[in-house]
């Protein structure tokens, strides 16, 4: 079904300019008098994320009004307050605590059966390929493989928790949008947030150690396991960036993996 047909069938009225990305087209619309966003995915992983949004059913996530195939109609959330701006204003700790609560909201037990989502292991293929070159990629893959072989508390994951994917609802507080939708160890979601809102922020002196402490105190994973997931995730992120052709940015992201490895080694001594 094309967008024109969806607009007509779901009784939507355009309410702004379309936002186009490599993965989806997002249309600001009005639905039954409410501000909403119509997201039409162009790639499979975005469409899978719709399944998780439907399963979350507005509990810690943007409310879903309609879903059909690649199309998701959800509530429109505010761009302010903004977690990236919160970090830039010097309130990094508060932003991390909000991200932790958002992740915990996704990870809560729910009575409905889990949606059919890919296992986290499939997400790490790019790191496995990069590991053939040795070095920090190989070290990250060794840690990732150990974590994937012995997961803790397996459940649905957001898959892309960061400062731009947790937005403010005046009625319900901070809620998530745009999940990838995976099944696996929740440690993965916490590692993702530590690499954001930018690699330069992640690498600021003392920042990583402090935000690891914030997550642990907020009842996230234990420090050694969190650092292991961070080493693995940052290696994976670097591998993705390398595949995209940006070797310089991949090298900077790999520094996060190396830093996590050093902190993990220190924690073990």
TrEMBL record:
Keyword Cell division listed: no
E.C. code: 2.7.1.72
Signal sequence extent: none
Keyword field contains Kinase: yes
Family matches, as Pfam families: APH_6_hur (PF04655)
GO biological process, one term: secondary metabolic process
Protein name per its UniProtKB record: Streptomycin 3''-phosphotransferase
Source organism (scientific name): Deinococcus metalli
């Amino acid at each position: 079904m094309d967008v024109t047909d969806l607009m007509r069938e779901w009784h939507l009225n355009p309410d702004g300019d379309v936002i186009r990305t490599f993965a989806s087209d997002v249309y600001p619309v009005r639905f039954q008098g409410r501000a909403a966003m119509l997201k039409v995915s162009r790639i499979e992983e975005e469409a899978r994320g719709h399944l998780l949004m439907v399963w979350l059913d507005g509990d810690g996530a943007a409310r879903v009004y309609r879903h059909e195939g690649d199309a998701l109609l959800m509530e429109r959330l505010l761009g302010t307050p903004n977690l990236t701006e919160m970090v830039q204003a010097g309130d990094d700790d508060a932003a991390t605590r909000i991200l932790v609560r958002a992740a915990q909201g996704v990870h809560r037990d729910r009575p409905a059966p889990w949606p059919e989502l890919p296992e986290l292991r499939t997400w790490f293929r790019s790191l496995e390929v990069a590991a053939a070159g040795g070095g920090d990629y190989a070290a990250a893959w060794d840690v990732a493989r150990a974590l994937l072989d012995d997961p803790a508390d397996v459940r649905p994951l957001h898959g892309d928790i960061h400062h731009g994917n947790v937005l403010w609802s005046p009625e319900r507080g901070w809620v998530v949008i745009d999940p990838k939708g995976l099944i696996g160890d929740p440690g993965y979601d916490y590692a993702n947030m530590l690499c954001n809102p930018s690699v330069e922020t992640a690498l600021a002196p003392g920042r990583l150690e402090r935000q690891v402490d914030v997550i642990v105190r907020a009842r996230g994973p234990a420090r050694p396991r969190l650092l292991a997931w961070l080493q693995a995730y940052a290696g994976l992120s670097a591998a993705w960036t390398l595949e995209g052709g940006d070797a310089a940015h991949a090298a900077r992201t790999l520094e996060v993996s190396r830093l996590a490895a050093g902190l993990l080694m220190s924690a073990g001594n």
